[in-house]
Amino acid sequence: MLNLIQRHRDLLLIAALLVQPLAAFLLRGGRAREPDFVDRWILGVSTPVQGALVSAVAGTINAWAAYGDLRGVHLRAVGLAAENAQLHEQLQALTEVKAENERLRGALRYAERQAGARLAARVVGFNPVAEVLSLRIDRGELDGVRAGMAVATPAGVVGQVLRTGAHAADVLLLGDSSSRVAARNQRSRARATATGAGDGKPLRLEYALRTEDFQEGDVLVTAGTDGIFPPGLTVGTLTAVERKSVGTLQPAEVLPAVDTVRLEEVLVLGAQPAASGPLAGGTP
Fold it and tell me: Helices 9-27 and 37-113 sit at what angle, rounded to 10 degrees?
């Protein structure tokens, strides 16, 4: 018992100081009187204690109120962040749809200018093997696609169909080392052959006679004499023309008109669509 009193003597003293005025008041029947020396001493001692207790209680209440406000602000911030992320995702989706619609409208205008049948297709994959530069489209034999058909975009030549499945086909890209296309200088009408040089390299201009007029910046288009590509499709732009003083040929490089790495839609020329409507997906 003594140990308990010693451990809590401060609290007991404070309680006694706070209870004494009330007890005295009750013992006197609630009658008011002039405070004596003891009363004034107790009031003098207890007033700072009471003030400290009131301040502590008020501080605790204010702290809890501030915590509640901060928690509410945090929850609102989390909600706004989630809403912002959702709106950003919707904006990205709308932007993607708009870009796709613009590409498809361009492909449609280009297809309408071309004579003969043509079939729109989506690019669904790229060949990761560098020895054969090709991509896969979502149209195949059941859609009228056959090996050897030309593939292009409004920007120019992409390549030709290499092999087909029922609902998909692989397209050999113009940059592959086995690709060849008969070309013509759009300005001077001189003829030559554009050949692939492998991944990431410009095309090579071959069989361009030294006596013909080829200049850097000239645009090459398909000549239409190879039995694959119709005439007038853009192949690329001449660069690094070598003007030799001897020999019969003048080598040059050709920057392809189509960036095949970013392709998303193409046109298969000569393929007859089985039915009209939007682009359709498929499996090999």
Answer: 120
